[in-house]
């Protein structure tokens, strides 16, 4: 019995020792991945749901590049001021917004998503194919008040979806 147990225990210990660094590497790449970040603290707390539910404000009204460019793009301060010269001017966040406007000082929004430099993502290909923003960004019209990354969007996730829809998976499609 003992003679049988000993190699088994040695084997188990070896297995655990071997598994540790692998687990550590996997955990590190998960938690430290450059593209997975919690919600960012923004200079002005901009509520998406409030705006996306206004009948005249499609996502594309503010993110004008989505169907033509690689980048979705950010709205200029002028666009906010079309409304906020008059709307909710008594609120603290809107007063900060007005200060930026009066000082000609653009708001530096923190990036929520950020692909590494060697990766190439193109909004227009996905949006014109027919994917809804919610497919990758969640329901920012009804559920997600403040922009945050909700989908993995790392290489495995991109490739799985490309395979599912028969889109190209050559390295050069996504890498420079
Ligand atoms: C009135 C303008 C406006 C509208 C309408 C709007 N957004 Fe935004 N969006 C912004 C601003 C300003 C930011 C930067 C602040 C932030 O990240 O919260 C932003 C940030 C984002 C981000 C994060 C960008 C990053 O840094 O990675 C996503 C994703 C996004 N919006 C998607 C949407 C979607 C989807 C809709 C429609 C349901 C939408 N937006 C409608 C103004 C708008
Ligand atoms: C089409 C008009 C319109 C545009 C354009 C618009 N907003 Fe608004 N915004 C509103 C309305 C309406 C509310 C809700 C006001 C309320 O609660 O009474 C609001 C609310 C807000 C609030 C929350 C205020 C609070 O503390 O309750 C912030 C912050 C804000 N907007 C920032 C922005 C920024 C930044 C932009 C430009 C990227 C922008 N808005 C563009 C109409 C607009
Ligand atoms: C197939 C997934 C996918 C879809 C669909 C998608 N996005 Fe994105 N979005 C991304 C990825 C990935 C990034 C990060 C890109 C980068 O860092 O270069 C991003 C970044 C953004 C950004 C910030 C950076 C930029 O490009 O300006 C905004 C704003 C944004 N998306 C809005 C939208 C809106 C609005 C829609 C719908 C019209 C949409 N996205 C549809 C995956 C998607
Ligand atoms: C929800 C599914 C889905 C996800 C997630 C997705 N893609 Fe795509 N992607 C597609 C489809 C489908 C096409 C093909 C569109 C077409 O045929 O016009 C495509 C096309 C592309 C193209 C353009 C290819 C060309 O030659 O026009 C690039 C670049 C790309 N994807 C990069 C990425 C990257 C990088 C990610 C991850 C950050 C990603 N995609 C995530 C479905 C997806
Ligand atoms: C559909 C898009 C897509 C395709 C196709 C793709 N990649 Fe990637 N790749 C990404 C994205 C997004 C990242 C950045 C996020 C991450 O690290 O997963 C990445 C990251 C990487 C990295 C860096 C990993 C790190 O830890 O920084 C390497 C290396 C890489 N890819 C190699 C390849 C090779 C080799 C191929 C072809 C066999 C390939 N990729 C095909 C989307 C893609």
Topology:
Blueprint: H1 2-31, H2 48-52, H3 59-62, H4 77-84, H5 92-102, H6 123-129, H7 133-137, H8 155-164, H9 171-174
Helix pairs in contact: 4-5
Bound molecules: heme C (5 copies).
One heme C is lined by residues 44-47, 50-51, 54, 56-57, 62, 75, 79-80, 82-84, 87-88, 91, 93-94, 97.
Biggest sheet overview: none
Count of separate DSSP helical elements: 9
The H-and-E topology, N to C, reads as: HHHHHHHHH
Spatial extent as radius of gyration = 23 Å
The 3D shape can be described as elongated
Mean pLDDT reading: 87
Q: What separation lies between the terminal Cα atoms?
A: 60 Å
- Give the structural class: mainly alpha
Helical residue percent? 40-55%
Bound molecules: heme C
Instruction: Bin the strand percentage.
Output: under 5%
- Low-pLDDT sequence parts: 28-38
Number of domains: 1
Per DSSP E runs of 2 or more residues, the count of β-strands stands at 0
């Amino acid at each position: 019995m003992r003679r049988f147990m000993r190699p088994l225990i040695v084997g188990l210990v070896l297995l655990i020792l071997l598994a540790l660094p692998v687990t550590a590497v996997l955990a590190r790449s998960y938690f430290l991945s450059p593209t997975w970040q919690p919600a960012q603290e923004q200079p002005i707390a901009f509520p998406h749901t409030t705006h996306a539910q206004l009948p005249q404000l499609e996502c594309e009204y503010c993110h004008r590049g989505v169907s033509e460019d690689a980048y979705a793009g950010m709205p200029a301060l002028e666009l906010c001021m079309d409304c906020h010269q008059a709307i909710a001017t008594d609120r603290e966040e809107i007063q900060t917004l007005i200060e930026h406007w009066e000082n000609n000082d653009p708001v530096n929004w923190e990036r929520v998503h950020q692909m590494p430099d060697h990766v190439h993502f193109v909004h227009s290909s996905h949006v014109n194919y027919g994917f809804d923003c919610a497919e990758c960004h969640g329901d920012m019209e009804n559920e997600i008040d403040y922009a945050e990354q909700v989908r993995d969007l790392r290489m495995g996730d991109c490739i799985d979806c490309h395979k599912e829809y028969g889109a190209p998976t050559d390295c050069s499609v996504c890498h420079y």
